[in-house]
Amino acid sequence: MKQKSEGPARSTTQVAVVTGGAQGLGRASAEALAARGYHVVLCDVNPDVAAKAAQEIGSTRATAVRCDVGDTSSVDAAIAQVARDLGRIDALVNNAGIMEPSRSEELSDESWERVLRINIGGIMRMSRASHRLLSESDNASITNISSITAHRGFPGRLAYVASKSATEGMTRVLATEWGPKIRVNAVAPGFILTERSRAIYESGIADGEARAGMTVMGRLGEPREIGDVVAFLASPEASYLTGQVIVVDGGFLANGRTGRDITERPA
What we know:
By secondary structure, the protein is an alpha/beta fold. It contains nine helices and seven strands, in the order βαβαβαβααβαβαααβ. Helix content is 42%, strand content 14%.
């Protein structure tokens, strides 16, 4: 008979581990999960920023743990700490990732390998390390953060797009291997106004207004709108949902309009 893990402290509250949880979509996901009663563990390569975020979320609802998802020993140590301090994992959100834009003919081996090591290697390492504790939960889920770039050709992002396409394939494999005990899904955000993207738009590197105009909603998304979907996927309400990619993009991928159309009527 399978034995439950033993430890000095097993939380009576469900525990969610969020990688890259100190800011951006990771922070928004952590806040949404905490609002729904989870104790959230912010796994981040920057422990100071993660500790500040945990304090702001609430010391009784959040914990910061240093973790470099690109390094197996760091991942294993982080999950061991969660097991030791909280004794359980009910939800894993694989959000940590990097983007290093480059023209494909100028892409270095080092940049290619770094993006894949973190973006898809991180999902593999965190999922593998968390499997035992997730298997002991009555409501276990993994949510991988993909991107709309996995569904379109985005120039200058060969490694990033490859990693997000792989993220969605990995989601389906893990769902088939680990179901029915662990549900595994992905969220593919569109153009979301995070701190990082806001700085990019303000610097003029990218045009936020043009991107907003490409969506059906006519605006950029808010981080909380991704966090709420992540929290839903971790909830019992999503109990029959696994192996899926949920696109949250304000209708960007659905939008086939190229300008004003004869079928459009003035408001």
